[in-house]
Amino acid sequence: MSVHQTIHGRVLVISIDRPEKRNAINAEVTAGIDAALNELEDNPALWVGVLTGTPTMFSAGTDISSRDAGRTERGGEYGLIRRNRRKPLIAAVEGNALGGGFEVALACDLIVASTTARFGLPEVQRGVIATSGALFRTMRALPINVARQMLIAGLILDAERGYELGLVAEVTPPEHACAAAVAMAERICLASPFSIQQTLIAINSQLAQEDETGWEATQVAIDAILQSEDMKEGHSAFFEKRTPQWKGR
Question: 248 and 234 in contact (C-beta within 8 Å)?
């Protein structure tokens, strides 16, 4: 199993466990995340979720060797990205959250990160773009100039800088992010679950129109990239372990 579920009272901890692949997400991981989040949403005994990786790695994003990480009916990409959620979900980040891994964290309600955490969007360096929400959620979570640096200049944020900018809710020592996220989840559980769910529904309904515009813009960019020579070159260079020779088209 590449995704594990553990229950702590009313908190469901979901762990991606593919350390040999840097927790990269393939169809199996997507299905595991989807199943766990379905359980969180459908089980009235569960009030809050925590999504994490292994002690030294959150996720390197899509497993490129699998070519397609798959989608699910309720969650969309990675079983999470387009999910209509009512219950809070906290990302507990250790190590790298890159590409799709960062997009997974952005799709959560809160981020707890240890001092080892690093957030980045390296897609353009491979001739592609971020396709799972980062083109609009990064701008929502960070100042626009920082979002641009991440999306087009390869800027990597550490946990402390992410905290200063409001991306990260809490910074912990190494290997303590999950425990801190569970503690945060338990504090949330002291409040009315119905009130929390209605609050999240209200927040998300206000963001829905922005999301629709964001997805439309993302699809336009995806359609252009799929026809580009640079995407083909970036893919070839990655697997051949060489520097890309960009065509600019």
Answer: no
CB neighbour list of residue 191: distance below 8 Å, 6 or more residues apart: none
Cβ atoms within 10 Å, residue 187: 10
Report residue 193 CA to chain centroid gap.
24
For the question of residue 77 being annotated catalytic, the response is no
Catalytic residue among 41, 77, 94, 123: 123
Q: Look up the CATH architecture of domain 3-175.
A: Alpha-Beta Complex (3.90)
- The more confidently predicted of residues 42 and 235 is 42
Catalytic pick from 39, 103, 170, 233?
103
Which pLDDT band holds residue 1 (cuts at 50, 70, 90)? confident
DSSP 57: B
Q: What is the pLDDT of residues 86-116, one digit of tens each?
A: 999 999 999 999 999 999 999 999 999 999 9
Answer yes or no: 28 catalytic. Answer: no
